[in-house]
Amino acid sequence: MTRGLFAFLLCFFIFGPVAGKPFAEHKNGEVRVPDSVRINKMIARAEAFIPKFSENRKYIDSALALLTAAEEITSVPALENLYYRVLSKRARILVKSADFTSAQLLFTKITTYERRKGIAAEAASWQKIGDDFELEIKSGFPLRRSCYQKAYDLFKLTGNKQNVADAMGKVADADMTAGDYAKAEQEQLWVLQEYKALKYRKIYYGYYMLAETYFRSRKEDKHIKARIDCVNAYENDKNGSIGDGLLYYYNLAVAYHKHRKYEFAIEMYKKGMQISKTLKDFDRYYWGLTGSVGCYIKLREFSTAVNLLKEASKYPKTLKMECFLLSRELSLNTSMKNWGAAQKLVQKFKLAFDRYLPNAKVDGSAYAKEEFVVTYYPLPLYYIYTEQWGELKASLLVLQSFPENKLSNNTRIYVHTVKLKVDSVGGNFLSALREHEIITDLRDSSMSLESRNRISELEAKYNSVNKDKAIQLLNSEASAQNARLERSKLQGRFIVVITIVSALFAAVLLFAYQAKRRSNFTLRAKQKEINDQNGVLSELLTQKEMLLTDKNDLVESLEDLLSEKEWLLKEVHHRVKNNLQIVMSLLYNQSTYLKNEDAKKALFDVQNRIQAIAIIHHKLYSKNSVASVALPGYISELTSYLSNIYVQDIRSIRFVLDIEDISLNISQAVPIGLILNEAITNSIKYAFCDKGGVIAVSAKRTENEGLELTVKDDGKGLPDAFEHDSDSSLGIGMMRALTRQLKGDFSIESEQGVAIHVGFKLEL
């Protein structure tokens, strides 16, 4: 009642004289048009109350009272246009105050009036109404989308393809805001197709909205591509607004930053900072500065980061930017291990963020909560490095004050990393293990694009190495060919020399009878020549012997290297086996402190799986072959081990092994060992009653170098309600996953017991 009285008095004292004039001016049929300037002032005063709506209901009442008075003044035929303008403003006030029922009544009046100007005008009025909705008021999302849909349907009737595409973009925006990302994505892709067909130079508007949808739906790989397309399209538009460019550059910089492409992120941040200085938007300037500093910290270019932070005092800054700068400064000192400077910042950091936290909570922006978590994270990270566990726990409560479903996967990793450390320090190891699994899942889901980049880099390196090897091989072949040519030349020279010597010797014998003196003289001369040639031959033979000796030494060296390699591989397998035994011992010790039987059983199962792997490495280092495992011996030892550890349960259980002489390399032996361990353990635990039974294990070669592994028991079989294709069981899910790793087939039969079949192709 107080609010109503306040609105009445305000309206009466300020506009009472104005409201009374139309009635006075209707006397004797005379109508005087009121001053339109006065009406515009009333509208302006009503709109001035809009920012204060969230503070007190009285401001809403005051704004509506002003517009009601203006509506009464303009309710004459001569002021029809001004009257509907007042109605539009009143509808806007009702929308922003979340009074959608009253607003809808005005929508019909306004659009009916605009319809007289044409279909396009009516469509534009529906679109303008949709633009007036507040994104913070979720209850208005369906009505907002309905307004945009009506605008789209009407624009289709006009045949203006540009307006139709723009209107569908508004519909997509409404779906994205409401959280229907799949629908929004399809709508935005259609809009982009239309823009391309129209050769619309501002197509970057469509790419920006598509990128926003991918960001909110956490499709990281598509998100960054859409950001890049947006920037490229903007830079192709010479008349593009620099305000738009600032938004696009910074969004792409953040995307690069998240995907650890720091050099590219810095380039985008710098472009955004330059535009910010041109616009004198210092808040945005500091935003780019802090982003650049963060990248330089990741690149460990600390001196550049320090110099950049010195620019922070040049321009005025808001509380939010002050928090951002403190975050980067603390992160920089922590990375540099400058603990003294970091400690001095902590109190100032906490005070600033205590003031910033309430603003972040009420900020409806999609990025506000993420920005707070990311900028606050250096404080708990500092507590971890300095082992201040009590302070770390308090900082975790601050991070957890935001709903996790409002954060991206990368940001959620920060929260769970702090939670993992708090649980570990507090001795809550099961919770810490769950946090570790959550972090792993989040990291895997958000690193798809990064993984492809790494694969591309590895592929490039691989091609480079192959190229070097090919060159080396060609050089070796060329050297061998040259050696063969040299030997051929030597043989030819030797034959020529022998031929010449023989001919000369025959000539000497022939002419010896005719001229003894002359022949003797010639003979001595030729003999000297022969001796010279023999000296050359001796030298060549000596070089040949040296080459053969070098060859033998090289062969011996290669044999030594091969032996050393085999010894090292055996040592590696030995150490792996020992380390696995240590892990099993740690698990056993841990289980003695556990009171929960399910936890003990889980640790016991983990020990068995580790032992299955340990047996493989034991086989590898204890045999001559260090790259393969003999399947018969391995399965025999594994079943023997499982028999011993379940001795109380298998007094009447017998194993029947039918294993062909097959060897597996280690990449296939480990999955097979884990599958066997899981299948045999399940049969021992669940297949038999008190009477026991038989577990048969067979491994047979199949066609096309395949292997068929079967584990069968004659027990009671699977329950009737068991779904064979389901992964609800951890053991069955693990066996299916391991079979997929082998690129094989997995099946379960339940006739006269349970039979598990695994088929895959052997790696040669």
From TrEMBL:
Record's catalysed reaction(s): ATP + protein L-histidine = ADP + protein N-phospho-L-histidine
SMART domains for the chain: HATPase_c, TPR
TM annotation in the entry: 494-513
Pfam families: HATPase_c, HisKA_2
GO molecular function: ATP binding; protein histidine kinase activity
Gene3D superfamilies reported for this sequence: Histidine kinase-like ATPase, C-terminal domain, PAS domain, Tetratricopeptide repeat domain
Protein name (database record): histidine kinase
Record carries keyword Phosphoprotein: yes
TPR repeat intervals: 246-279
Superkingdom of this protein's organism: Bacteria
SUPFAM superfamilies linked to this entry: ATPase domain of HSP90 chaperone/DNA topoisomerase II/histidine kinase (SSF55874), TPR-like (SSF48452)
Broadest EC class assigned to this enzyme: transferase
EC number: 2.7.13.3
Entry keywords, A to Z: ATP-binding, Kinase, Membrane, Nucleotide-binding, Phosphoprotein, TPR repeat, Transferase, Transmembrane, Transmembrane helix
PROSITE patterns given in the database record: HIS_KIN, TPR
Span of domain Histidine kinase: 571-764
